[in-house]
Task: structure prediction
Amino acid sequence: MSLIFYLEKKMPPAVFAWMKRVFSMKQRLVLGSISGSKWLCNLYYALFSPAFRREQQAVAAGLLLHHSPGDQRSNYTLLRRNIHRIEKGLLMQPRRDSFALSYIVEAAQCYKQCSMADCAAEWGKDLAWAHDILEQYFEVVQESEQVKLARDIFLEVGKPSEGMGKKVPYNRIGGCGVSFEDFANLARHRRSVRWFLQTPVPHILIDKAIAVAAESPTACNRQPFFYRFFDDPEALKCIRTLPPGTAGFDHNIPMLCAVIGDLSAYYGERDRHGIYVDASLSIMSFMYALETLGLSSCALNWADIESQEREAEKMLGLKKHERIIMFIALGYPDPQGLVAFSQKKDLFSLRSFNQPNLPCR
Ligand SMILES: Cc1cc2nc3c(=O)[nH]c(=O)nc-3n(C[C@H](O)[C@H](O)[C@H](O)COP(=O)(O)O)c2cc1C
Result:
């Protein structure tokens, strides 16, 4: 339990409220003096506040893995990214005669290394995609030294067992088959559900929802996240109280999911937010898919609180470059359980068109 939750529970409400005011005053004073200068902020967070330390270590550990040529997963992520970039080159209008020259050799090397990796069978579909894209690239690109070198590496690798020429850019035919009304109904129907029936959640339904979540957009098609589900009663007993936001309803959660981001997916620090953005986009699809399968869910916050991070790291066996994005409680909704009304913001507070200043908050 974090210190703040502990104090909130143990202290008389008036004392706790006073403490919060003092804390806010201190924040105003300190942050008011430093927030105008990046240097002062750096100094403050380096010397006086540990708030970003775990995040920084995770980013550094991820980058180290990414830049370790022997690491299979890093090669796999790099392959996905490079193939994605080549695919974009293939669908450009007009397509250039020569493109991807700065990374085509790297792409071919990644393809070769991934094809020889222990996980090659697991990556069968991805390797088939990489094969088909590279094959099409070599068919259309103008010859050059890099292209020749990359093609030689590509040809050293045997043909994959899956795919063969199908996983290339294509014209989408027809609409999506879902009306706006149906989709709006789904969005309005979904609410954070905190009360569940004690009925086991079939894993086959989870797989169906994850397959939908996997269709979500991610930066450079990296998909730098992993969903870990827990429904074993013993495991659940330990893990369901990890996210502090389950207080009061944790005992009735039949399945809990931890979504883990993988910071080894990135070449540089600048992409460090990608795990949160990409995972969240997929989580939303996952939640909608659950609703269509009769299941419901509640996202659970995971703040960067050192004591809780340490507990989670130990319990889930997390590596330094892995970050929890959020937890999700899920199960069959209890028809007797209420959901919050959760009034949504008005359109005018959520969007503007061609307006130079942001609307008032
Ligand atoms: C990132 C995130 C974290 C959340 N954390 C919690 C939480 O810890 N506990 C909880 O009961 N609800 C949590 N929620 C659910 C929100 O309270 C809920 O989405 C919001 O009030 C809107 O209600 P609705 O989801 O029913 O539309 C979280 C939602 C999100 C998106």
Remarks:
- The mean pLDDT is 93.
- Strands lie at 225-230, 255-262, 296-300, 322-331.
